[in-house]
């Protein structure tokens, strides 16, 4: 895998650190609108090529994957153009702004027999797989709670009147799209699509959600997904059944360790050895690429579509409107 990156934020640096830990994966090019920013990133990670023209990146024959970590609203346009130009794509969360955008990208990837991945670390973590393995031991499920709350470094600026991308509806920002989306992935992969979706949010004057609770109703149990960028909180997930519960100690995008409690007997698990959570998804992506396993890629895309459908239902239930909704 030879990857060209879009974006220069902290998530890109985490991604590049993960790339360096996998033998047959490398970053060969960086794209940035500002040459100085691109060169700084390239120098830090010993990347030879820097582009300020996206078309030049797409024409680089030494790049077969495009990694997209741009502002949320730009994911779709970058991914669409990359696929149109024959490049495989790894796109950061949230995958797109609307269900229609997600469907368009999936259909294009299928038509062109290209790989398209949403970079959701949760799905690829060994501790998450352990949760899936142990679910049946809980008996009949009753309640699921997830909390991923992290005070944003940009929230103080927002309160002072400076609207950065992540708190801007024009850029598809907000707590649901940026942080609670991980909780939606966590529960949807375990339990499928919810029967009912509600979203109760703290809405700022510009119409963006700074925190909120998504309520998902399944046939026999309820999920509560809390996400906040305006306050700190204990990050966890708890799955309760008639015979016991599973407690995840930490945010669902990391799944650092878990406890399984059955009849007051506690079992503790941590099957993860890499400190960088993104290593695991890259290992899975590389395996799919090496085996040309398009069907596995499409299964992941089917999951991403379910999550996007749920996220949009939640967002619209709270009356949050993105600029992308009016395209």
Tell me what you see in this structure.
The protein is α/β, with parallel strands linked by helices and 327 residues long. It has two domains: 2-121 and 280-292, Rossmann fold (3-Layer(aba) Sandwich), CATH 3.40.50; 123-274 and 307-326, Dihydrodipicolinate Reductase, domain 2 (2-Layer Sandwich), CATH 3.30.360. The protein is built from ten helices and 14 strands. The strands form two sheets. An eight-stranded mixed β-sheet has the order 8-9-10-7-11-12-13-14, with helices on one face. A six-stranded parallel β-sheet has the order 3-2-1-4-5-6, with helices on both faces.
Strand percentage lies at 25-35%
Helix content: 25-40%
Q: Helix- and strand-based class?
A: alpha/beta
Quote the CATH topology of the largest domain.
Answer: Dihydrodipicolinate Reductase, domain 2
Mean pLDDT metric? 97
Round the Cα radius of gyration to an integer and report it: 20 Å
CATH superfamily of the largest domain: Dihydrodipicolinate Reductase, domain 2
Organism: Clostridium pasteurianum DSM 525 = ATCC 6013
Enzyme class: oxidoreductase
EC number: 1.3.1.20
Domain Gfo/Idh/MocA-like oxidoreductase N-terminal: 2-117
Short structural summary:
Keywords: Oxidoreductase. With 327 residues, the protein is α/β, with parallel strands linked by helices.
Write the layout of secondary structure elements.
Layout: E1 2-6, H1 10-19, E2 26-31, H2 35-44, E3 49-51, H3 54-58, E4 65-68, H4 75-84, E5 88-92, H5 99-112, E6 116-119, H6 126-134, E7 141-149, H7 155-159, H8 175-191, E8 196-203, E9 209-217, E10 222-228, E11 236-241, E12 244-249, E13 258-262, E14 265-269, H9 278-290, H10 294-317
Parallel strand pairs: 1-2, 1-4, 2-3, 4-5, 5-6, 7-10
Antiparallel strand pairs: 7-11, 8-9, 9-10, 11-12, 12-13, 13-14
Helix pairs in contact: 4-5, 5-10, 8-10
